[in-house]
Amino acid sequence: MTTWFHSWRAAVRIARRDAWRSKGRSFLVLAMIALPILGVSALDLTLRSAELTPAQRVERTLGAADARFSDARTGGVAILQDPEGEQNTPAGDYYSPGTSWPDGPTDVTKSIPAGSTVLTDSSGTAKLTTTHGLLQTEVRELAAADPVTRGIMRLQEGRFPEKNDEIAATTRFLESSGLSVGSTLTARGFDRTYVISGSYELPSDLTAQQVNALPGAFLAPYAKAVEKAGLPKPDVSTTYLVKKAGGFTWNMVQAINVKGVLVTSRVVVLDPPADSEVPLYQRKDWAKNSGGADAAALAAVGTVVGLAMLEICLLAGPAFAVGARRSRRQLGLVGANGGARSHIRAIVLSGGLVIGVAAALVGIVLALVLTFALRPLLEDYVGQRFGGFTVRPLELLAIAALAVLTGLLSAVIPAVTASRQTVLASLTGRRGVRRSNRVLPLIGFGAVLLGAAIALYGSVVSDQFVLVAGGSAIAELGVVAMTPALVGLFGRASRWLPLSPRLALRDAVRNRGRTAPAVAAVLAAVAGTVAVSTYAASRDAQSLAEYRASLPYGAGAALVTEEGGRDVPAVRDAVQRTLPVDVRADVFRIVVGKPGCAPYGEGEGCGRFDVVIPPANECPLWAVAPDGSDVVEKYTKEQRRALAKDWRCLSHDGNGIYVEEGLLVADAPLLKVLGIDDPGAAKALADGKLLSFHRPQVDRNGTVGIKLITDPKAADRAVEQNKPVPGELKSFPAYQVPGSPDSYGVESVLSPAAAKAAGLTTVPLGAVFSTDRMPSSEQRQRLDAEIAKLGSNVELTVEQGWVDENGLVLLALTVFAGLVTIGAAGIATGLAQADAEADLKTLAAVGAPPRVRRMLSGFQCGVVAAMGVVLGSAAGVLPAVGLRLTEGREQMRSYQEALDQGWVGVGDAPPYVPIVVPWETLAALLVAVPLGAALLAALVTRSRGALARRAAH
Predict the structure, then answer these.
(1) What's the rounded Cα separation, in Å, for the pair 254 and 83?
(2) pLDDT in tens, 840-873
(3) Which of 145, 441, 559, 931 allows an S-S link to 766, with CB 3.0 to 4.6 Å?
């Protein structure tokens, strides 16, 4: 043991001194290992610091309270909840046909135990005035200065509100609004003014734009002002912070759940019950996370880490070989003085150990320093304050061990190679002749066949992505193992090359020990790039084929559904001023109830309307049986496929602008914007007829019915009970637009005059417009700024056609592969120059021009890069093709199942899953990268070397 320890200590000392002498090479390898370690360590520190303990989560949710009581909106029906109070469902069976889902408010205050301290926490929204205009903002009423709320909000400046005319605001709101502590603000349509008394932040949501007022100081008077203006009052949600001696146990929480109240209890969250004691988890219709996704994520991370280690080893291995080759005289002296081969291996391996340990220390120390220094920026990026600066020593030690292991693995092959050199060859500088390993290429060939078979099976038979990815990885490792033999095959092309490239290629083939790792490193990087690029290009081609425009090219829509369209005139004016508008069609929508009602009957005193489908035109597959059963089951697969092609089952494909019931109130300019070139349609619209682009809604008399529903809840109950929906029916003579023109989501159009004549109430919705040229980015930004001043929720659409979202990704991958290729080729070139120094001296001695040295260096680098790029390009296509074949089979199977169920209608084409090779990326890799590597190596190589006497052998 003592001998072993002393020999390794001496080897480490020699390796440390050698690393210090060759600072450039040592720094290069250290950087290659330390940078990934820095990234992984920083990621670990950030994720662990961002994780909150249960106590920290409870503090940010409950403050100092013992529980938060919330209305589950089940109308007082008993519920089942999880211990965290994040999920709940009604306790009874409400999934049976004909059973109404419980809905409605619950009086939460009746479930709060007597003698408890209670604080209300209410939230709503309002458009607040800012220095730029109006800003839709969350308004929260909570006595934030009360000790019970400590921890929910963190005061940054000033103080929390103490009077009814004061509010506090989050720092993000102050940044967005241009206001500061001491400024005043009010809300649109509200006559009260508030002073900003302080700023605060929500530690779990740093991006929140929120203001805080005392309970009753803002939301209630604001709601009255809004209702007085004829608009529906904003929705307000209220929860209750409750403090009670002893807290609330799990049994108490379950007892409160019976009243339809959801409880988040401090005691339960900090000491949760077993899953067997949670009734919610025992329901058959409730699935708890099994952790399968976490296991898949860990497998993916492990695969990425393994491939990254392989790439680093392949890149760093030749660098250690350079060191061993340049230190061969020193290693020869060790052997001449009685050192065994194990001592030689120990010295070279110690180089990897020293660099690995140094890389681990540098990477982890830099990660600790940078994560601590950049903590505020990381918190802003994550969007929440960290619970603390959390360091997991065992995890960091594991990461450090990964760095050491990578360094050792990188030095294994150079160590074995150096130990096989004889003492005489090492001292005299002879390279000797060594036959290449014949077993490794056979193993690699077997791995290629096995991996290809697994990938083929996964893509053609089982449709398992894991098999495709695993098989591709095995095949790629097989190609890496075959690299020395493949390099030898490249050497046969040298006979047709000029002098310098012939010398470079033959030198690379003759010294496969240094060439193969560099080529393999390039191969691995390029294979990954080609695989991702091929897959992305194929997905882009599929996305382009499946793309459906929202509007004609260059056209746009600006729609406002809130507050009865109060901001629509300003929005229309902003569109007209900022964009190159050609034709503008002002559109309106039908409203039932108050003029300020939102679509689909949202809000008190609001209703909705339905475009009636005549019973004779209803799709048989969508009908509802009297007993609530699924009528689809009574049809065979062949009947379902036939019915799916029936015109009555024609459904909207989802593209285009989204409007209530597909109905717009507008005049003829809308047809021009949508590209509807039918004189009959314009005439019918002028005559007061309803234009229909959806055949099933027109009855046998050529009319379309619009039902006005004033009581949405009664209508929903009627639908659940399979009864006629109550409401007033308005009938309009219809004009069915011939053919199947693309109406971009609009199913029917009614003129404002016809709507008024029928007694319908309409409000402005916005504008649909065409442009004489595509709006520029600057024009879009100006329009966005104008809309931001209004503070309205504007649904803005400008059709730009299909946009390639992966172009930047492909460029980044190409650049990455190019950098790795140049780096690996450069390392191999440095090793080649170390080996070929005697040959270069001989060339100079026999009168070769100085440029030959530069040209030889460039071609040596270019040859390595070219071989790696060619092999990597061939290897990278396999996984992409396998994944695309798997996706194609999955999508075709889903399509056939949809056909069997009758879900595929007219115009639904079979899935199109192309395989596209990104020739531009391949051209850049195959031509530009090797050429660039060769030119760069030639530029940085000195033309003249030191002429010295060649040693006699």
Answers:
(1) 10
(2) 667 667 776 767 777 777 777 777 778 888 888 8
(3) 559
Which pairing describes strands 134-141 and 210-213: parallel, antiparallel, or unpaired?
A: parallel
Return the H-helix or E-strand segment holding 156: strand 154-158
Average pLDDT over the chain, rounded to an integer: 80
More confident residue, 803 or 584: 584
User: Quick one: pLDDT at residue 242?
Assistant: 94
d(CA 270, CA 272): 6
Among 176-190, 579-593, 722-736, 923-937, which stretch is predicted with the lowest mean pLDDT?
923-937
Task: Convert the pLDDT of each residue in 1-29 to its tens digit.
Answer: 456 666 667 777 877 777 777 776 677 77
Please tell me the distance from the alpha carbon of residue 50 to that of residue 202, in angstroms, as a whole number: 15
User: What residue spans of 902-953 are helical by DSSP H?
Assistant: 919-923, 929-940
Pairing of strands 210-213, 581-590: unpaired
Q: Which two tokens stand for residue 835?
A: 């080996």
Residue 729 forms beta bridges with which residues? Answer: 707
pLDDT, residue 118, reads 92
d(CA 412, CA 432): 20
Place of tokens 């800003």: 135
Supply the pTM of this predicted model. Answer: 0.72
Q: In angstroms, what is the C-alpha Rg of the chain?
A: 37
Residue 846 burial class via C-beta count within 10 angstroms: exposed 0-12, middle 13-18, buried 19 and up:
exposed
In the DSSP assignment, the letter for residue 150 is B
Measured CA to CA, the distance from residue 102 to residue 73 in angstroms comes to 8
Listed range (370-374, 484-488, 864-868) with the worst mean pLDDT? 484-488
For residue 936, give every residue at least 6 positions away whose Cβ sits within 8 Å of its Cβ, in sequence order, or none: 822, 826, 861
Q: Token pair of 388, please?
A: 């603390």
Between 688 and 631, the more confident residue is 688
- What count of Cα atoms within 13 Å lies in the side-chain half-sphere of residue 342? 4
pLDDT value of position 913: 84
Closest-CA residue to 752 (of 663, 661, 665, 664): 665
Cβ-count burial 660-671 (b if 16+ within 10 Å, e if not): bbbbbbbbbbbb
Instruction: Give every CB contact of residue 618 below 8 A, 6+ residues apart in sequence.
Output: 648, 696
Alpha helix (H) residue ranges in 243-291: 250-257, 266-270, 279-282
Please give the Cα distance from 294 to 760 (Å, whole number).
55
Residues 734/747, Cβ–Cβ less than 8 Å: no
Q: Hey, what amino acid is at 454?
A: I
Measure Cα distances from 518 to 310, 410, 475, 692, 921 in Å. Answer: 12, 12, 18, 67, 21
H helix runs in 791-850, sequence order: 807-835, 837-845
d(CA 583, CA 728): 36
* Segments of 762-882 assigned E as strands: 762-771, 794-798
Pairing relationship of beta strands 690-692 and 728-736 according to DSSP bridges: parallel
The first and second tokens of residue 474, run together, are 């095995």
**With 0-12 CB in 10 A as exposed, 13-18 as middle and 19+ as buried, what is 838?**
middle
The pLDDT tens digits for 525-581 are 777 778 878 888 888 888 888 888 888 888 888 898 887 788 889 889 988 888 898
| Cα–Cα distance, 36 to 113 (Å, whole number) | 56
Tokens 């992305």 label which residue? Answer: 536
Q: Inform me whether the pLDDT recorded for 166 exceeds 70.
A: yes
Structure tokens at 106: 């619950």
Residues in the chain: 953
